[in-house]
Amino acid sequence: MDKFIDEIKSFLPQVSDTLVLDIITTLLLFIGVMLFKTLMIRIFSSQTRLAFEIRKRRAIHIRNLMIFVFVIGVIFIWSKEIHALALSFVALGFAIVFAFKEVISSANWEIFRSATNAYTVGDYIEINGMRGVVLDHNFLSTTIQELGPGKRSNLFSGRSITIPNSTFLLSPLINESYMKEYILHTLTIPMTTDDEWEKAEEILLEVANTECEDYLSHARTHFDSLRYKINIAHSTVEPRVAIELPEPNEIDLVLRFPTPFSEKWNREQAILKRFLRKYKSNS
Fold first, then answer.
1. Nearest CA to 132 among 158, 114, 113?
2. Both 161 and 199 in a single domain?
3. Max Cα distance, the chain (Å)
4. Listing from the earlier edge strand, what are the strands of the sheet with 240-244?
5. 258 and 169 share a domain?
6. Number of domains in the chain
7. CA-CA distance, 143 to 137, in Å (whole number)?
């Protein structure tokens, strides 16, 4: 190592031994982190028995962990130089913090997201009117595959959205897939007071019960387990219809029903089509 440092100093005579050693240590740390990250990702990628989303999620976690390890290592290696700079350039330090406040905020959110499990790859989230499936996340941003048009659509728009992580610190985040396997979904049927809304309510509830019959017991078991795991409030799982009056002479039939999260769009469409057919035949 001494001979190697002397060779470097022959090219850079003004560089001290400590600085050369710090540079070499940083390069070795970088190479080690990259090799370890590549090895771990290859190991997880080879586990074909695991679902693709799980393998991708683990690869992202490894990448983010290695970035964190490298940053901590660099700070430790260059601690003396950083300390000297901090003492000599306090004003510059404040300027840097101010200039990179967005980056710092984004990094803070990633730490907060990891601690609270706010979302992960594959989750359906919405923030500031942007809605989609999480494709990737790191210390600076989160990328989602957009769903739209509209807030209720479950069709992919063909676009991706990259959101700075600092946005999540300023706006409420909605995680639609928080309950994982089964969720409680709502479907709104607009009507007027002149329509036969009582008959429509009866038909809608009957159709929903028929559609949910096959998996209702599994959904009830799922929500019972969640009640103890995450301490959610008790809620009836069976389909229910609520009456709302959004405007004078207008009525909304709001159906709430359980559904497998991955099938919520198909279940909603099936209920809607069966309701319309049956309501029309009874009119």
1. 158
2. no
3. 95
4. 182-192, 250-260, 240-244
5. no
6. 3
7. 6
16 with 90, same domain: the answer is yes
- Pick from 124, 123, 108, 228: nearest CA to 170: 108
Containing domain of residue 134, as a range?
124-175
Residues 80 and 158 in one domain: no
User: Phi and psi of 11, rounded to 5°?
Assistant: -90, -30
Q: What is the full per-residue pLDDT of the chain (283 aa) written as tens digits?
A: 555 545 545 544 444 567 778 788 888 888 988 898 888 888 877 777 777 777 778 888 888 888 888 888 888 887 777 766 666 666 666 666 666 777 777 778 888 888 778 888 888 888 888 888 898 888 888 999 988 776 666 778 888 899 988 888 888 888 887 777 888 888 899 998 888 899 999 999 999 999 998 888 888 888 877 776 655 555 678 899 999 998 888 999 999 999 888 788 888 899 999 999 998 887 6
Residues 80 and 143 in one domain: no
Q: What is the CATH number of the domain that holds 250?
A: 3.30.70.100
Domain co-membership, 162 together with 226? no
User: What does each C-alpha distance from 97 to 90, 93, 104, 214, 240 come to in angstroms?
Assistant: 11, 6, 8, 57, 53
Say if pTM beats, i.e. exceeds, 0.70: no
Check if the beta carbon of residue 121 is closer than 8 Å to that of residue 60. Answer: yes
> How far lies 179's CA from each of 18, 94, 147, in Å?
54, 43, 19
